[in-house]
Amino acid sequence: MRIACVHQGYELYGSDRSFAESVAALRAAFPSADIEVVLPRSGPIVHILEAHASRIVFEPLWVLRRQAIARLATVEMARLPVAVFRAWRRLRHCDLVYVNTSIVADYALAARFLPHKAVLHIHEIPEGAMRRILVGLMRWSRADLIFNSRATRAAFGDPKTARTHVVYNGVAGPAAVEPTTYDGKRPLRVLLLGRINRIKGQEILLEAIASMPAELQSRIEMRLVGGAFESTERERALAELVETMGLTGRVSVLPFVSDPSDHYRWADIVTVPSRRPESLGRVAIEAMAYGRPPLVSAIGGLVEVVSDGETGWHVPPGDAAALAAKLQEIILAPEAWRGFVAAGRARYEAIFSEPVAAAAIAAIAADKLKTTMARPGRARAAREAETRP
């Protein structure tokens, strides 16, 4: 049995970790399968894939990124036919091709010709022209679809030409919650972990803290952890914003780390103040796994992750005043949210833990492979292989 797993990234952010967990689930379900992982280049993700992949290959992929649309529509267009042919050839030679995210355009286009072999796992909520492009690609592919939340499926629509599934990302977490030490007598430790981009809302959180009275500001310590995708300019701009707002002593801007465990252990709460819809919200899930209640924007899949007033808090997206008010409430009344820790961990284990998602991914793959293996040509080849000496 040959399985290919295709991913558009090479770092260790949310979608990268989700991909690695899907590969691990496929390996556990099909231990003797030949599993080939396809990446655009080497990077931090490779070391966690090596234990599960038969081999890892690096090939150019035709990836639809917002910041590269102009180049893709012009100079890169000549490369598209070759990329689609390469994807079609891999589909032809494999029993199953699992493609992570909807933005790998060459595989979505090639899947149309062999849809019985393709599964697209969609992890993003696009907007505007990008949404129209990605929805069109999804419908064209006719592949089976996995959405990582109900919000993601609603954004893309539910095509009648393909089987669809909603599977929440499985997230590896610690064996138990970390001890909770905040009692209101020391500064509240606030963590924001994620890419520096127009979606994540780092500037909204900074604005919220800057608007608070000096006495409350003195009761907050904050870490902004992460980097911008191939853009040092964004990283510098965020550091400059912290300085401009007079928050240098209060806010630390720290680089991306492949293992954020120490940051979660340091934190008392974790913020996800996204300005635009998150397809799910992996950081909020990880926060609950560590026993760190998440404070999130009430948008996209985040409302499916965090139960407001039970495992964390919701605030309107882009509303710095509402975020500041909620932080004040958290600082002044720590006893009011002590129960969030246990409730969040229980929610994580029941819905978002790695074994729950792995079982769902494995079941979808097994069902897909059953269909592929049942096709006359494939079944005959399998019988012939079994009778060879």
Automatic annotation (TrEMBL):
Keywords in alphabetical order: Glycosyltransferase, Transferase
Domain of life of the organism encoding this protein: Bacteria
Source taxonomy: Bacteria, Pseudomonadati, Pseudomonadota, Alphaproteobacteria, Hyphomicrobiales
Leading EC class: transferase
Protein name: Glycosyltransferase family 4 protein
Chain segments annotated as transmembrane: none
Xref: Pfam families: Glycos_transf_1 (PF00534)
EC number(s) from the headed UniProt entry: 2.4.-.-
GO molecular function: glycosyltransferase activity
Occurrences of domain Glycosyl transferase family (ranges): 187-345
